[in-house]
Specification:
single chain, alpha/beta, eight-stranded mixed β-sheet, globular
Length: 398
């Protein structure tokens, strides 16, 4: 038996006036996801435990059956592992976004948390410049992918209060700057980055090409090295994770799953969908389980871009779900697929909310229920009601 999780990050949403009060999932043309729902079981799942932060890190760990209330330490340590950083017990890792700041009513605002989806090659120039100017025995910057990077603070502090930049798109940043123990050190680095970036040659090039210059770093997601039990010990399965996002690759490394890097995987609408499917089917030749993640719907939700979110969902359906189901049918006799978002990312809020997400389970031994389409409506119409997201893996493997 082969087991697959197909996860469209942040696909779930609220009704949108521009879509005739349909959600993006309802408005999008998704024949393959609808067929999966129609031929399988549908319902809902709560992927964020009560009291935990509503993020993809918590949701992904929960979906894989890990109780985040006991082992979650923060987002950035997972991303650090993907970059190849071996954290020491006293190290604190921080996500380091490259962001574009704006101005409204005399206040600085978060114009773009993704740095205009800066390329990895461009971003490396800025991170290298930061490390040359600001790196020390205490602080070291590590380049990641696109706008997502890492800062490690040796003997660092965890008392500082930090805000994810995608939660404050379009808002004034003053009240969301670092606060609490250790905030002064982090604010110093953020302020210094603005001086370094202002006249950096890359930003001059971006201005000449009509692209927004990178204004600053933004630090968040702090945490120390976690202790995550082996996925194989937990389920007796060998598996792989396919994602453009360092978070999921790092999670894979800590859990003993193989993180598979796909050339051209960007985390945005231009990602290499076909490559992800190809690598997933290849991995299943000698592995039992694949977790295939697509980031683009969530990115569009954070930007409040209705059209981009609908496109991201339709691309996920046409370029991932459809080819993946065809490949499974062609190459394997027995398989099961769990389809879901990790959390809702409502366009109107531009951030995550803690609500149940629609789910669909399809494949060997799964009897269909009344679900006809894959969208938020199956949360009430479907036969599955998973209140503890850690039970989703058991549902898939049952």
């Amino acid at each position: 038996m082969k087991y697959v999780i197909l996860l469209g990050d942040g696909m779930s949403d609220w009704p949108v006036p521009e879509l005739a009060n349909k959600t993006p999932l309802q408005a999008a043309h998704t024949p393959h996801m609808d067929a999966l729902a129609r031929l399988g079981k549908t319902g809902q799942a709560m992927t964020i435990p009560e009291g935990m932060s509503t993020g993809s890190d918590v949701a992904a760990l929960t979906i894989l059956g890990y109780d985040t209330r006991h082992l979650y330490t923060g987002r950035s340590p997972l991303e650090a592992a993907s970059i190849g950083i071996e954290l020491q017990p006293t190290d604190v890792a921080f996500r380091c976004n490259l962001v574009v700041l704006g101005e409204a009513d005399g206040q600085r605002t978060m114009a773009d948390f993704s740095g205009g989806h800066i390329t990895t090659e461009e971003a490396r120039q800025l991170i290298d410049a930061l490390n040359d100017e600001l790196g020390s025995d205490a602080f070291h910057f590590y380049p990641g992918v696109s706008y997502r990077h890492c800062l490690v603070w040796r003997e660092g502090r965890l008392g500082v209060q930090l805000t994810p930049p995608h939660d404050i798109t379009g808002r004034a940043i003053a009240e969301y700057l670092p606060s609490g123990e250790g905030a002064a050190e982090l604010q110093r680095l953020m302020d210094a980055s603005q001086v370094i970036f202002r006249e950096h040659p890359l930003n001059r090039q971006r201005r000449e090409h009509g692209e927004p210059p990178i204004s600053s770093i933004w630090l968040w997601g702090a945490g120390k090295r976690p202790q995550i039990p082996s996925f194989r010990d937990k389920y007796g399965l060998a598996g792989a994770v396919i994602s453009a996002v360092d978070l999921h690759k790092g999670l894979a490394l800590y859990a003993g799953l193989e993180p598979i890097s796909v050339p051209g995987a960007t985390g945005w609408l231009d990602t290499n969908y076909a490559g992800k499917v190809e690598h997933a089917l290849k991995a299943l030749q000698d592995k039992d389980f694949v977790f295939l993640h697509v980031e683009a719907p969530d990115e569009a939700g954070h930007q409040g871009d209705v059209n981009a979110k609908v496109q991201a969902i339709e691309d996920f359906d046409a370029k991932v779900v459809g080819p993946m189901l065809a490949g499974l049918h062609q190459h394997f006799e027995a398989y099961r697929v769990l389809l879901l978002p990790d959390h809702p990312t409502p366009i109107v809020l531009k951030t995550h909310v803690r609500e149940p997400v629609p789910i669909a389970l399809y494949g060997s031994g799964v009897e269909p229920d009344a679900g006809q389409t894959f969208d938020e409506s199956v949360r009430e119409k479907g036969s599955l009601d998973v209140q503890q997201g850690t039970e989703l893996m058991r549902l898939l493997l049952a």
